[in-house]
Amino acid sequence: MVEPTTQTCPICSVKIITGAAGGDRVIFSAGPQGSRSKLWARVCQFNQKPGCINEQSKSAAISADDYYKPDMPSSDA
Ligand SMILES: [Zn+2]
Questions:
Q1: What are the tens digits of pLDDT across the range 62-75?
Q2: Which residues surround ligand 1, an ion (CB under 5 A)?
Q3: How far is the CA of 50 from the centre of ligand 1 (A)?
C-alpha cells in the first residue's frame, strides 16, 4: 500500500493527490476535483514553464470535457 501524498505544483499552485485509489486527483482552487488531464487543459498548458509537476499530462489524452466551459452556470450568485 502506498499512502496518498499531496504535491503542490510550484508553477500552477494547484494541489495534486498522487497514489490515491482510482488514480491521481487534482484539487482546484474552485470547483470539484478533477484529473491531471483536466488540470493540464485548464491551467498548465497556459503556463508552460519548467518545473510544472503536471508536465506528463502534456502528452496525455485530453477529452473535450477536460476543458473549461465558460457557459457553466455560476454558483456565486
Ligand atoms: Zn502545473
A1: 888 888 877 656 66
A2: 9, 11-12, 44, 52, 54
A3: 9
